[in-house]
């Protein structure tokens, strides 16, 4: 099988497994795991922040951030298609107790859109407390939001009295694509989260960074949500290995994604959104002749795994377990599958 469903399907490499096996560990709830502490320090330094907190998932990182920045009943603006709106099982309402409002287009949010979404300070409206941006943006096809656009959004939010969280699950992809340091992608947001188990290839974990006060409060929220872990240095070691060995190679994933898009360009019956990074969105002809589920099932039968992203949209994600030869094979199979539909 050529698995293009997500970059979360990657498995630890032999070198990563060796690093995990030899990790020095301690009880992280007591603050005694040196490998976790090193990972938190490294990520905080890379993003230009005071401190970091290792958490089990990006969803938990985002939900902690929402609770840091807003109170129950408050409203939070989120970039259109945000992960915390689409893919976190309603946790913003169920756990953080906040109302999310979508703003912007394709992951980009302008100062005017922020100002236009602010609630008046009257008793019958929720208080707008925060803004969440996402970079790269998953539902926009791994789109990179430029530092200039992010800076304008963050500055506008701060000027309006809002705090800002950046969901940087694939922030290192943005950094590599732009050729700039991760801290430049993170900008001046109040908190930032990065995922270790997507393109970086670690099995588990995200890191939330911010001020020391943010991280102090986040530790309590992590524990409350069941995220306090004990000898978790075995997982943090995988994250450290990924930082040392898997960041620069993200450019290979971006090249593979472009190769897949080029291989499908011009194919009758489908269109492709040119990728910025490692996500390729494939749109089928919306005339009812074939839907995304049927096409994905046909692709699976031919050994290609895709994600269904809408009634007529599919997603393919490249990663460290997908070779250029795999991409050529996948493109050929997908072109063959669409021909009978068009005919």
Describe what you observe in this structure.
The protein is α/β, with parallel strands linked by helices and 343 residues long. The protein has 2 domains: 235 residues, Type I PLP-dependent aspartate aminotransferase-like (Major domain) (Aspartate Aminotransferase, domain 2), CATH 3.40.640.10; 93 residues, Alpha-Beta Complex (Aspartate Aminotransferase, domain 1). 43% of the residues lie in helices and 18% in strands. It has 14 helices and 13 strands. The chain has a 7-stranded mixed sheet with strand order 2-8-7-6-5-3-4, sandwiched between helices. A 4-stranded antiparallel sheet has the order 9-10-13-12, with helices on one face. A two-stranded parallel sheet has the order 1-11. The radius of gyration is 20 Å and the shape is globular.
